[in-house]
Design a protein that fits this description.
Layout (H helix, E strand, L loop, with lengths): L2 H4 L11 E2 L7 E2 L7 E4 L1 H7 L4 H5 L5 E6 L3 E6 L7 E5 L24 E8 L3 H4 L6 E7 L11 E11 L4 E12 L2 E12 L15 E15 L2 E16 L8 E21 L2 E22 L5 E25 L2 E24 L5 E7 L5 E16 L3 E16 L2 E9 L2 E9 L4 E17 L2 E12 L3 H4 L2 E3 L3 E4 L7 E13 L3 E26 L2 E26 L2 E14 L4 E2 L7 E12 L2 E12 L15 E14 L2 E11 L23 E9 L1
Parallel strand pairs: 6-8, 26-29
Antiparallel strand pairs: 1-2, 3-7, 4-5, 7-8, 9-10, 9-36, 10-11, 11-12, 12-13, 13-14, 14-15, 15-16, 16-17, 17-18, 17-19, 18-21, 19-20, 20-23, 21-22, 23-24, 24-27, 25-26, 27-28, 28-29, 29-30, 30-31, 30-32, 32-33, 33-34, 34-35, 35-36
């Protein structure tokens, strides 16, 4: 008996979450050909995550490269670093020139997030460079009072305590509006000490402290035309860097992000069904201080680094209903990015604290990048069962940089010896055409089949093109001769959506041309260190599958689980690719009760990771592990208050000592041990 017979006659029920990332228009997940995942507001409320990465890594096909809790680099279908594009409300805020480092650094407060949408597979047609592995679009909360014919106000206050790092979090939000205007004003703060691993040892340099402020406001000229103003300020005062565990200190003393955005949305404008336009400006400033000891020499070093980046741009897209069965999307995007930086590294002899070396250089060059893109997408509805999507895009990228100064002073018995080097760089230009072909076929009202063939590209980053970075044993050396990465992806999928059962299964194959990777040249030295130069790998391929399901065994009891596998190979050199997550999945049971406005839930979950022994030549194997979590809570009205929500979660229930295969840098930082999180939210 096939599953359609088991649930015959039932209507599509849960996979009706509305998403915008895959088509730039509101659609149900079930009706989108592209493979998608959504982290809903309810999941965020129940999981009480401290960063977006903690909920994203529960999705099949999505993993995180981590250094402690705060540095998280998303990996989608085996492609990480700057190959997964991170957006905030559809805007390229966090993926500016420094995007290769940590595109998901906590520059946005979790309390501001409404949901997170993930497109798996190349999405360069709609979003341009960096969307090679996929897109993560963080959708923020917004007020909804402007269309009321009276003034309405709402307040909320929430707090969270986490035991693993004696961490405290608090947030207050005031919303209100009416008669065409509304606003949402929020302030939040977080203070976390070093966390404990499964052996109950402190993980050095894993602390975090910040405060944030955000404002969002709408003004409606009429129900079809409105503008949105967004201001976001997030200031991190202390964020440890755990890949330096033996350092007395290694931390960001400043990691600030300010964003300003003005948007217009209109409907029924003559020829156009709808128009969206936005202009944005974002600034990021980072300062690092660190002290590290050398294993090879009786030396220690002091590092200070400052990086300042800016990004400004505009985005526009519109929809045209050509016929009753055809909808055309067109649009363009432009952004201008700048960077400047300076770094000083001083080395001292441990025996007498005498200075031996002083380096002054720019970890990121003074550079500018202009990104231009124009795209069109046509949705054709063939009968009642078939949707065909055809899309094409052209991108043009121009990058320029000033020459890189590098100053070395060695302190010898005869006095200081100064060496100056000025590395010349050249301007670069990149062009790319990308396409997408998508097909969705409704086999039945509850079973949709999908197929996609699409291409993606990624232009080399400023770091890969130009940057000279001083490592422990090597000097990272940029390469202006790099070609852009190109990918060609194919996937097939099925989506099931019944009242008691929801599920999906996808298989995919992704071929990547000119994959950019760093390679050590042992016989090529610069300033006494072996060069580690970025090169193009001619051919690489990734393939795998993802599956997930939910089954309502009883009205109040749901079984759920997922599974994902990917393998990546450098076919040019017959090696495995680096940073490929192992076979992984989760399984759990959820108990949930609702009685009017009262809600109760309890969730038991196991996250399971296989060993990873299909590793790159310079990569270590890692053991498999399992982590068990408990999530519980209740939401109920209480007198004067509209709602009170209490949550009590236990992560890593059995205090497992483990580290993930994906990591930042070369050091495996142990993951947090047993963590009890207690949360309270009051709405009034």
């Amino acid at each position: 008996m096939i599953i359609a017979d088991v649930f015959a006659g039932e209507q599509a029920y849960v996979m009706d979450e509305m998403v915008v990332s895959a088509t730039k228009d509101e659609k149900k997940v079930f009706d989108v050909a592209a493979p998608m995942e959504v982290v809903t507001s309810g999941e965020i409320e129940k999981n009480t995550p401290t960063t977006p990465g903690q909920v994203l890594q529960r999705l099949p096909g999505v993993s995180m490269s981590t250094s402690g809790i705060w540095t998280t680099i998303p990996t989608v279908r085996g492609l990480g670093l700057s190959r997964t594009l991170v957006l905030i409300d559809g805007v390229r805020e966090s993926n500016n020139i420094w995007r290769q480092s940590d595109p998901m650094a906590p520059i946005i407060d979790m309390g501001e997030i409404e949901r997170i949408e993930v497109i798996k597979g190349p999405a360069s047609v709609l979003y341009g460079t960096d969307a090679l592995g996929g897109v993560i679009n963080i959708i923020t909360k917004k007020p909804s009072f402007a269309l009321k014919d009276e003034w309405t106000f709402s307040n909320s206050a929430e707090g969270l305590y986490s035991s693993v790092n004696e961490g405290w979090y608090g947030r207050y939000r005031l919303s209100g509006g009416g008669y065409g205007f509304d606003f949402m004003l929020s302030a939040a703060g977080r203070d976390n000490d070093n966390y404990e691993d499964g052996n109950r040892d402190d993980v050095n340099n894993s602390q975090f402290k910040n405060q944030s402020f955000d404002l969002k406001s709408h003004y409606y000229f009429n129900p079809d035309h409105f503008v949105t103003l967004t201001i976001r300020d997030n200031e991190i005062d202390d964020m440890g860097v755990t890949f330096k565990p033996d350092s007395p200190y290694f931390r960001y003393t400043e990691y600030d992000n300010q964003t300003y955005k003005l948007a217009y949305d209109g409907k029924n404008i003559g020829f156009f069904d709808s128009i969206h336009f936005d202009a944005f400006h974002t600034e990021q400033e980072r300062r690092v201080e660190g002290k590290a000891f050398s294993d090879a020499k009786p030396m220690y070093s002091l590092k200070t680094s400052h990086v300042n980046t800016h990004s400004s741009g505009v985005n526009m897209h519109n929809f045209i209903n050509i016929k009753g069965n055809q909808r055309l999307l067109t649009g363009f995007t432009y952004s201008h990015e700048t960077s400047n930086s300076d770094e000083t590294l001083k080395s001292f002899k441990i025996a007498n604290d005498a200075q031996a070396l002083n380096l002054d250089f720019e970890p990121i060059p003074d550079a500018e990048t202009d990104l231009y893109g124009i795209f069109a997408q046509d949705e054709i509805f063939i009968g009642d069962k078939t949707t065909l999507t055809l899309a094409v895009r052209y991108d043009h990228i121009e990058t320029s940089s000033k020459d890189l100064p590098f100053k070395v002073v060695k302190y010898t018995p005869g006095g200081p010896v100064e060496t100056l080097d000025n590395i010349e760089v050249s301007d670069e230009k990149f062009d790319a055409f990308t396409y997408n072909l998508g097909l969705l076929y409704a086999l039945t009202p509850n079973i949709h089949l999908t197929a996609n063939a699409n291409s993606g590209f990624r232009a080399p980053t400023i770091m890969e093109l130009y940057a000279i970075r001083w490592g422990a044993t090597t000097a990272y050396y940029g390469n202006p001769e790099l070609d852009p990465e190109q990918s060609y992806n194919f996937d097939l999928g099925v989506k099931l959506n019944y009242q008691r059962f929801r599920g999906m299964f996808n298989i995919y194959y992704n071929q990547v041309k000119d994959l950019i990777s760093a390679k050590i040249f042992p016989n090529d030295f610069w300033m006494g260190k072996k060069k580690e130069i970025y090169i193009n790998i001619a051919d690489a391929e990734l393939y795998g599958f993802e599956a997930s399901s939910e089954y309502d065994l009883l009205e109040w009891m749901t079984l759920f689980g997922n599974l994902a596998y990917v393998t990546g190979e450098d076919t040019e050199n017959d090696d495995y690719l680096i940073d490929i997550p192992p076979l992984n999945g989760l399984a759990g049971v959820r108990f949930h009760l609702e009685n009017g406005k009262k809600k109760y839930w309890l969730e038991l979950e196991a996250q399971i990771f296989d060993k990873q022994d299909h590793t790159a030549p310079w990569e270590d194997d890692t053991a498999g592990y399992s982590v068990f979590n408990i999530r519980s809570g209740m939401k109920l009205p209480a007198g004067y208050f509209e709602n009170i929500t209490l949550t009590l979660n236990v992560e890593n229930l059995f205090n497992k000592q483990y580290h993930e295969h994906l990591k930042v840098k070369d050091n495996h930082s142990p993951c947090p041990g047993l963590n009890i999180l207690a949360g309270l939210k009051i709405e009034f």
